[in-house]
Design brief:
Strand content: under 5%
Strand order of the largest sheet: 1-2
Order of helices and strands: HHHHHHHHHEEHH
Number of strands: 2
Helix content: 55-70%
Number of helices: 11
Radius of gyration: 22 Å
Shape: globular
Largest sheet: 2 strands, antiparallel
Number of domains: 2
Distance between the termini: 12 Å
Structural class: mainly alpha
């Protein structure tokens, strides 16, 4: 956002409105399409509206509305206020529960159950609870706002050792604040708590500062092309990774030795990776091979200069 919105001078215009709304709608629809695929036995009554791509879409829209509508200091104050308000809602919103951050009793889950309904929530932890739920989307927006303004600041600075040093201190400060807040607002990705926002932001700044030092200050790019391939078509890589998994789970069938059929995802693990490497090493190897398969597709797209952007 710090780079793409610069074309519009970081000010609303008819063109920017269209860009933001178009990107929001496309990411949301792609997310819903992936959720519905392969469209067999599809039930609207049990459709999960939230998820990774829908969250990215909503966060992009909310963050854009905030940073383009008010001044920088105001946006940062509002963002920090959102984290504090979210903390208080979790603490006291569920009648002052003795376990305000627990899976069963957190207020964010209560809001999702009330607005979305149990049938529309993720059930991967055994009960209806969505880690990309409504309230936590607002705290996830803060992560984007912090990253956006760090990106704006980065574009305004000379890339040198003082820049890297200050970035490292900023990242360490974020991590330190996260752990100071942790006893009162636990670091929790599923709830996207304020302490998690500070921790992930701090780690992201440190990583970016390290890459900036290596690539821009020292002018070294060796060994980084592997990651650039993913970055140049990041959305397509993500969509393809989900699409192929769902093909293996719901479309591609493989024969069982004792008769019948099973999905290709299960078959590949129990017939190829698990017998050779065992449970956990086999699972890791399966994941790495799958990741490399996606990388090869992205690499071929990069070699042909095919870049798909929204």
């Amino acid at each position: 956002m710090a780079y793409s919105l610069s074309k519009y001078g970081y000010r609303w215009s008819s063109g920017l409105w269209r860009k933001v709304l178009r990107r929001f709608a496309l990411i949301l629809l792609i997310g819903w399409g992936l959720r519905a695929f392969p469209f067999t036995n599809f039930e609207w009554a049990k459709f999960r509206w939230m998820g990774v791509l829908p969250r990215i879409a909503w966060v992009y829209l909310l963050a854009s509305l905030l940073v383009l509508s008010v001044k920088r200091k105001t946006a940062l104050l509002v963002s920090t206020g959102v984290l504090v308000a979210y903390w208080l809602l979790l603490l006291y919103g569920n009648g002052g529960s003795a376990s305000p951050f627990a899976l069963e009793t957190n207020f964010a889950r209560k809001v999702d159950l009330l607005i979305l309904g149990a049938d529309h929530l993720w059930k991967g932890l055994g009960i209806p609870f969505d880690p990309e739920g409504i309230l936590s989307t607002f705290s996830a927006m803060v992560t984007t706002v912090y990253g956006y303004f760090y990106g704006r600041w980065m574009r305004e600075q000379p890339i040198n050792i003082p820049y890297v040093r200050f970035s490292l201190m900023l990242g360490v400060a974020g991590i330190g604040l996260a752990y100071l807040w942790n006893p009162y607002f636990p670091i929790n990705k599923s709830l996207w708590t304020g302490s998690y926002v500070l921790l992930s932001t701090g780690l992201g700044i440190i990583l970016l500062a390290g890459l900036t030092y290596w690539m821009d200050v020292r002018d070294k790019f060796r060994g980084l092309y592997f990651f650039e391939v993913f970055g140049r078509n990041a959305l397509i890589a993500f969509v393809l990774s989900i699409f192929l998994v769902k093909v293996m789970l719901y479309v591609w069938r493989m024969p069982e030795v004792e008769g019948g059929q099973t999905n290709a995802y299960h078959w590949l693990f129990v017939r190829v990776f698990q017998p050779i490497l065992g449970d956990y090493p086999g699972s890791l190897a399966f994941a790495l091979v799958y990741m490399l398969l996606i990388w090869i597709v992205m690499w071929r797209m990069d070699k042909r200069a095919i870049y798909i952007k929204l």
